[in-house]
Design goal:
This protein has 2 domains: about 5-85, no CATH class; about 105-315, Rossmann fold, CATH 3.40.50.450. Helix content is about 40%, strand content about 10%. It contains 13 helices and 9 strands. The protein has helices at about 5-15, 20-25, 35-45, 55-65, 125-140, 155-165, 185-195, 210-225, 240-245, 255-265, 275-280, 285-295, 305-315, and strands at about 75-80, 100-105, 115-120, 145-150, 170-175, 200, 230-235, 270, 300. It has a 9-stranded mixed sheet, with helices on both faces. It starts with a helix and ends in a 14-residue tail after the last helix. The model is unreliable at about 315-329 (pLDDT under 50). This is DNA recombination-mediator protein A. Belongs to the DprA/Smf family. Pfam families: DNA_processg_A (PF02481).
Length: about 325
């Protein structure tokens, strides 16, 4: 596992009381000296006691010991200030910007110049949804665009599996790379890397509670929006689907809803798979219908719209954190 001294410094800073992502983004640019970092921590954080350089070095060594347990499960750690740390897309407030990533596979797939499309959806799609999603992903990877998703069951897995056939895919995890979740998708994760893809996560320790895991899934959903040029919703129940359809024996609301909300907030273009003639009475398209009704900038995917979307991604002119909207008229 490779990492720079800068990356370990960033990771160490994050462990101190009162130090969040926004503080790091405001105060650090990467590659500061230990002396500078310790001074900033003492002057601008909520520590109860003065931090010494020895204290900071002790904390760094403790983290290095933890990372030594990764063995072959992780290729490296990168952080803000590192030359190859990827730029996110969209307009993002400081508290939600990624500041470090653990990875396994081809980290260059996150490069701002790489064309990425996120494809997400519900956990239990029917066969028709799966068939339609596979066709969309197949068309995307034919155009040398990387598929991003979250390694969850259902639509996420379908997106990864189809992308591997002739293309590349990135899986964003809510867990450390030596403890892949969901466990039943470990083989799929390994296959993604073997086929030239990438696994990334912001975590190097196991979650300590269900609440923490739930928070990690939300953070994962945000990264699905941040590292793509557009996001596609295959299908998903809405937040009120259980009540609307009297389905109470299972959780219907999915992380796809959150990922689409993040994309809206970040000004990342959004598209949905939907056919008014065939999907009108299918509860699995509740979120798709809701977004179409409530949002002006949602694109309904047709073969023509998909081709147009891909062409605009290919033709985009990149600006720092200001990608050209795919659906500008």
């Amino acid at each position: 596992m490779t990492y720079s001294e800068n990356a370990i410094n960033i990771l160490t800073v994050k462990t101190y009381k009162g130090i969040g992502t926004a503080w790091i983004v405001k105060n650090l640019r990467g590659n500061e000296s230990t002396e500078t970092i310790v001074s900033l921590l003492n002057n601008n954080s909520k520590q109860n006691e003065i931090i010494t350089i020895d204290d900071f070095e002790f904390s760094k060594n403790h983290i290095k010991e933890k990372l030594s347990n990764f063995e072959d499960s992780c290729d490296g750690l990168i952080a803000i200030g590192d030359k190859n740390f990827p730029r996110y897309r969209g307009d993002v407030k400081e508290s939600e910007q990624p500041i470090f990533l653990f990875y396994k596979g081809d980290i260059d797939l996150l490069d701002i110049d790489n064309n990425n499309i996120t494809v997400i959806g519900l956990l239990n799609p029917d066969e028709t949804i799966e068939t339609r999603e596979r066709k969309i992903v197949e068309e995307i990877v034919k155009r040398d665009i990387t598929i991003v998703s979250g390694l969850a069951f259902g639509c996420d897995s379908i997106a990864h599996q189809q992308a591997i056939i002739g293309g590349k895919t990135i899986a964003i995890l809510p867990s450390p790379l030596n403890d892949i979740l969901p466990t039943k998708n470990r083989d799929l994760a390994f296959e993604i890397v073997e086929e030239g893809g990438l696994l990334i996560t912001e975590y190097y320790e196991k979650f300590k509670s269900k609440m923490e895991l739930s928070s990690r899934y939300k953070e994962r959903d945000r990264l699905q929006a941040l590292f793509c040029d557009t996001i596609i919703l295959a299908a998903s129940y809405a937040q009120d689907s259980a009540t609307r359809w009297n389905i109470y024996n299972q959780k219907l609301d999915s992380g796809a809803r959150l990922a689409m909300e993040y994309a809206k907030n970040y000004n990342i273009p959004r598209a949905v798979m939907y056919n008014q003639d065939t999907d009108i009475d299918n509860p699995m398209f509740d979120l798709n219908r809701q977004l179409i009704l409530e949002e002006k900038n949602i694109t309904i995917l047709t073969q023509k719209n998909l081709e147009k979307m891909i062409d605009k991604i290919k033709e985009k002119r990149l600006h720092y954190n200001k990608p050209l909207s795919l659906f500008d008229q």
